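Please produce the structure of this protein holding siroheme.
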Amino acid sequence: MGDANGAGSNGSGNGKFLNPTPMLDELESGPWPSFVTGLKDLAERTKKPMLRGVMDQLEYSYQTRMGYWKGGLVTVKGYGAGIITRYSMIRDKLPEASEFHTMRIQAPPGLHYNTESLRELCDIWEKHGTGLITLHGQTGDIMLQGIEADKVQECFDELNQKGWDLGGAGAGMRTGVSCAGPARCEQACYDTLEMHEKVMKHFVGAVHRPEWNYKFKLKFSGCPNDCTNAIMRSDIAVIGMWRDSIQMDESAVKEWVDENGMEKLVNEVVSLCPTRAISLKEGGIAIDNGNCVHCMHCLNVMPKALSPGKERGVALLMGAKSTLKVGFNVGSMVVPFMKMETEEDIEEFIDLADEIIDWWDDNGLDHERLGETIERVSMKQFLDGVGLEPSIDMVSRPRDNPYFKTKY
Amino acid sequence: MGDANGAGSNGSGNGKFLNPTPMLDELESGPWPSFVTGLKDLAERTKKPMLRGVMDQLEYSYQTRMGYWKGGLVTVKGYGAGIITRYSMIRDKLPEASEFHTMRIQAPPGLHYNTESLRELCDIWEKHGTGLITLHGQTGDIMLQGIEADKVQECFDELNQKGWDLGGAGAGMRTGVSCAGPARCEQACYDTLEMHEKVMKHFVGAVHRPEWNYKFKLKFSGCPNDCTNAIMRSDIAVIGMWRDSIQMDESAVKEWVDENGMEKLVNEVVSLCPTRAISLKEGGIAIDNGNCVHCMHCLNVMPKALSPGKERGVALLMGAKSTLKVGFNVGSMVVPFMKMETEEDIEEFIDLADEIIDWWDDNGLDHERLGETIERVSMKQFLDGVGLEPSIDMVSRPRDNPYFKTKY
Amino acid sequence: MSSPERNWKTVESGPYPYKKGLHPVMQKNYGKWKYHEYPQPGVLKHVAESGDVIYTVRAGTPRQDSVDFIRSLCDVADKHADGYLRFTTRNNVEFMTPDAEKVQPMIDDLESKGIPVGGTGKTVSPIAHTQGWLHCDIPATDASGVVKALMDELIEDFRGMNLPNKVKIVTQCCELNCGGQGDIAIIVKHTRPPRINHESLSEICELPKVVARCPVAAIRPTVVDGKKSLVIDEEKCMYCGACFGACPSMEINHPEYSRFAIWVAGKNSNARSKPTLMSLVAHGLPNNPPRWPEVSAVVKQILEAYREGGRPWERLGEWVNRIGWKQFFEETGLTFDEDMIDNYRHARTTFNQSAHVRF
Amino acid sequence: MSSPERNWKTVESGPYPYKKGLHPVMQKNYGKWKYHEYPQPGVLKHVAESGDVIYTVRAGTPRQDSVDFIRSLCDVADKHADGYLRFTTRNNVEFMTPDAEKVQPMIDDLESKGIPVGGTGKTVSPIAHTQGWLHCDIPATDASGVVKALMDELIEDFRGMNLPNKVKIVTQCCELNCGGQGDIAIIVKHTRPPRINHESLSEICELPKVVARCPVAAIRPTVVDGKKSLVIDEEKCMYCGACFGACPSMEINHPEYSRFAIWVAGKNSNARSKPTLMSLVAHGLPNNPPRWPEVSAVVKQILEAYREGGRPWERLGEWVNRIGWKQFFEETGLTFDEDMIDNYRHARTTFNQSAHVRF
Ligand code: SRM
Ligand code: SRM
Ligand code: SRM
Ligand code: SRM
Ligand code: SF4
Ligand code: SF4
Ligand code: SF4
Ligand code: SF4
Ligand code: SF4
Ligand code: SF4
Ligand code: SF4
Ligand code: SF4
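Below is the modeled complex.
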């Protein structure tokens, strides 16, 4: 059960407000910032009973190795989603946190903040809720954690007036995520932030009022490095792509070689290209761009010398999801290239996404994600259904069984 | 429909015995030896009506683009398999080949013949059947094609007295195949011929009297080059393997390099090793044997310099089959190494094979091959069932889904 | 819940406007960045085509933050970064400044507040994790706690840049895997079938939905004490807990029998190799709060073997791919067992369908 | 069929004894071979540890041989090879002699008989094939004919050794694929559902067996004219013909609608890469006896592209793997279409689950 002595060493946990939490206190030691210390300090300062209750319940979970929350339904006017409702299963025992709801708030694309907005958010939240915030949830929401049902509407109203809106939950569009993108990254092949904002504004109704078969996620990564994990975690992954040749600054290549040596060039660049598209040439390198698969590796190692081409846009990969039922699904290449420079390009994406979601909503089963529907119904029917052309880019190899039907 | 003029140019087809076969005659031209010419000459010489009938029917098939054989049941005393029975569906029209059965005969392991045996076989076959022989069927049988039902027993009796026996068909053990093996190949890691002979003698009853769920095939390749295609086409593929280090004759390596040059050494040996286990060393090569996956490539390119190690035996891969139902199944590694030097080693293999077949026959569904049963029931249960230890060699990677059940 | 009379309209605005959050130098050079460098661990230097430079200082957070903590981050931003800050997709916070001089004072300020600087380049960046006992309704553990305990031990790999490549770790409190794939993943694995609470089942759950949720069709309708209920075919059930996600009466969580499995070689990026799913390499580890030492030990074993054997730029899975899984188990000291052989859909595609084998 | 009184016993001897078929030099050096060389196309030279040498001359056969043809092979063996010969797993015949002097006369003798010598090393060895109209009960074509017509065109690739590596071609007369996987495969593909012969069905077939044979459960029992029969759900049926193998009343073969598909990149050996299954690259080719020119044309397109682009030792599939499938289609002039995207079991594992793409 551990000795609480080592804990509290950060100076917290000595207040009078909280009940003892010996097991949690064990998580106060060590160099990594402790969420326990944060919670305790917050509780001691604000004296919010809900915080004391939630600490007690968490301590009880640590002791019994079981969770004690159950779901429910809370929402705000006109919305059907955005609040994750939690009631305690042990409220008889620990009544102070009998409710502990979370408000999911859509963060700014790229998670770029200024301190003014953020302080505003903190103030409103401290006023109505516990003051505990997750930055950010795995889907990219700001999660305001710990509020009572009857305070949700007023909290939301106040937030909304400051420009904040609720994120997704349930069987609808979910909150989007985008990488830092063109704001600070040289690899960005399209404007992840702008696209994220525009697209999610289009789907805002579907975020707030879920009515599809199941959830649907979009993530926006500026290049195939995929810093938002889009390919593994979104029904449509929007990934930056270029179609022409990698831009090479020959003198910067030379500089790199001077600095790092030929051995490193061979071992860490040439040899690691997955398709061996890079060869040595005149003390520098030559890239066979027709054979480049846009993996990003050489650009990552030599960012000063190599950059994505000039004809830039996005690739769309579809069907990623987590383990449920079929096991993890990785997103599959469906649209290898699409321009993404103008408003119209974004509109075109939105049209396609609408088409895809309609198809999925019509053809999918209950609680079936896009990737599952595509696999069950077949890629061919999916492409037919949404009006896309089949292409060799969609497969790692053509089929190996004769089980297809074509008439001639 | 083609002009028969070009045909018959080999001098055949001018006899009086046969009816005109204009389409087939088109297959007499060209440099590759023609089975049509062979058939025609045979028919003209022997004047066997069955041969005329079968040519007529084949010509009719070429004209109508349809086949006209149907199955039936013919066998020899005490046997349940080995004859592939064919009755004509158009016997009214073309009565001379109303029957056209095939006798499958087990060839010698490695397909090594002397002319005396082969001539004997030809003579007996010409006496009772058409004189048409397939050397060999895809499963390795000698196929004596074209005999009437009432001649089968006497033909078999005569063959059997000369040491020939029927091969497999139906839901039992099938005829085995083995590569040239130690008789003429330096790569052979075990005695394919001896093992083939011993093992098939053990299973001879199962070959002749099929009574399992479905067919079961064994093939014996002396090394991972797999010249019998065992890995794709046998329920248990027996493939030669070594466990210690590749034997290297350093002076032969030098010789090779002198003759072929360093460039070829790098491009055709070093660079093509799948695990990059080969590096250049002092003008020759060094092999990291712990990282060698026994692919055979370097040994194939430099057979004089490199040979399989001294500790030799077999690997067993299980579950290969053709397309039916599940699509092609490639054999999977189940036993990475097993000594195969003595009678006892062969006995041990036979015991294991018996065990496996029993398990499959108990757990398999009707018309389900071993590979399908393993996949349906799970590798784990298969291993438990036949008493084998799981090993990392069996998989290309550990599972990626959490759907397993273990209790602690 | 009744709210007072409203004299405003809800604006369904969607994402908070990002433009407000861009440092002026980033606004100016938007889409015109040329390259980046790593001047020191925890610091990025991005150079624009214009010649402008922006430095980023990256620091760790507990993810479950208090407003006080966030306000103190704002203080840092106001003081050293012109009032701007951002968060990464991996719960780090980043402060941007065009001024090289401000970097070190900023780092000192952060560290003095107990906020560690690091996580750039070839490091262990903070562990992506999920809700756990603090909030979720189905967790078997507390992801935040597991992560805090482990980060305490890995902090030098967060601060340094001495690994072959980035190591992305994830931790999740049930098999739904809200944290996705990682180079190393720590995930709850149940080891007993759910215990059905027949009392509550028909009252609080839609029976057909629960039946439909089971991946292996192990749940059948039945009647218990005259009430409609469900029964589990324990032969089929593989303890995934999916039914529990649909219905709290399918009690899968258990203090002893809900355990941990460790997975490796997940990769999301397309760099060099295609993205890969992670593979199971250890399981049956106890769920041992408050510091889960058994879990940390295994993760560290794996990390050390990778540090030792990986070549520059090789992600963990790429390293394994090169040396082979057999050697992975040897070098980490972990043990391969029969449960690691896939027996689910597509199982066959993970078999070694070749004679390729290492001895 | 009644046979006369027997005064002997059947000996269930299994395989014919191989020892009788071994050339004395092979018997002497059994298991003691050291290496091989290719002195010229069609000839192998194996050298034993003892220093003994055996030369092998390899020659093509039609596979469906007459006893006359076989006897003439025996003549060659008697004259030049001490009375021994063997066949390869690919229907070639081989004659072995320790005497270098005998090689050329033997070759001349064979060629003069119209028996081509070749097939060793980096060649197109004869096409493995199946029964066809000559004997099988379910074929949609005549494999022997397709093969003869094609080998006429490929004979120089049989004789020469000017390909990047061995090219193994297979041809099969229905989708059961008795000929297995190959670098290039020519396989019947039906394009309409079976027509059911309700007359004969219940008389000659076991209905449940037929139902069970269908991979997609497209067959259901029904009653037609008072007789038990079957009906096919034509939406589900994908024309595989498996039911026809179980029951001749499920008439799948059709002169017009049974066509050909071409597959590439199958590989059985473990050399370098693991064995691979072949992939569909063309279909809808007509079944056009007696010489099937459309089939030969496609095979030659593929072969030429491979000859052009393949590097030494690269098997056809390894070449494709290096250049990518997109380039394969470009270089062969074939067209990728939607049917080539897998939609069967495990389909997902063939999708491009990455952003890797070539333009
Ligand atoms: C800030 C952030 C994006 C954001 O919008 O928040 C980011 C930023 C950068 N990433 Fe990333 N990546 C970020 C999450 C990711 C993720 C997702 C994740 O961590 O969950 C991935 C995919 C992970 C995976 O494969 O599982 C990711 C895969 C990469 C890669 C590919 C690495 C590889 O070799 O596989 C690069 C290339 C590189 O390292 O040079 C990259 C490169 C970069 C660069 C160098 C891009 C640039 O030129 O600015 C940035 C600095 C990286 C660094 O810290 O070394 N970034 N990057 C994220 C920081 C996370 C953190 O706090 O640790
Ligand atoms: C809060 C969060 C974890 C976190 O701490 O960050 C979370 C929490 C839950 N997830 Fe998740 N998921 C969260 C991101 C994800 C992700 C990651 C992502 O979006 O990138 C995934 C994997 C990707 C995917 O979508 O598949 C994910 C896959 C799931 C699944 C499995 C879906 C599947 O198809 O396999 C479920 C189960 C379900 O939907 O029935 C699920 C269900 C849940 C539920 C609603 C559990 C339940 O059914 O009651 C959890 C509510 C917890 C709570 O109390 O707040 N959560 N969940 C993440 C959302 C925060 C946010 O909005 O920012
Ligand atoms: C005679 C035969 C075995 C037999 O018992 O009959 C045989 C004999 C040899 N094979 Fe083979 N292979 C024979 C069928 C096969 C097959 C099966 C087939 O053809 O259906 C394969 C697998 C094919 C596949 O992968 O689809 C096969 C894959 C190999 C390989 C691997 C080639 C590769 O790089 O993938 C080698 C290695 C090599 O070529 O050096 C090889 C090597 C050899 C060697 C060099 C072995 C030796 O040292 O004696 C022999 C001479 C090969 C040559 O002709 O170049 N043998 N070899 C078969 C001749 C077939 C024919 O008439 O063409
Ligand atoms: C004769 C032969 C083709 C040839 O011309 O060489 C052949 C001919 C037939 N095969 Fe085969 N198979 C022959 C080798 C193969 C092989 C290759 C092998 O053994 O290496 C395969 C692929 C490997 C495998 O076993 O899967 C093969 C896979 C099949 C299948 C599909 C099995 C599957 O599980 O997918 C069937 C269908 C069935 O068994 O119901 C089949 C069925 C048949 C039947 C019995 C068709 C039928 O159901 O009526 C054919 C009888 C033809 C006839 O008139 O003689 N044949 N069959 C081969 C046997 C000759 C011999 O004994 O030497
Ligand atoms: S995904 Fe690409 S563009 Fe976006 S931050 Fe990562 S490296 Fe930069
Ligand atoms: S981006 Fe990747 S595939 Fe393209 S050249 Fe660079 S390393 Fe090779
Ligand atoms: S399988 Fe190996 S041992 Fe047998 S003939 Fe081929 S190369 Fe020689
Ligand atoms: S046998 Fe294959 S894996 Fe082993 S060293 Fe030679 S080329 Fe490499
Ligand atoms: S991983 Fe499971 S327990 Fe944890 S937050 Fe997600 S759904 Fe809840
Ligand atoms: S735990 Fe999983 S397998 Fe077991 S009954 Fe529930 S859903 Fe089905
Ligand atoms: S491939 Fe089909 S048609 Fe040809 S022999 Fe085999 S079973 Fe008969
Ligand atoms: S052809 Fe194939 S899919 Fe169609 S009914 Fe027959 S077995 Fe089923």
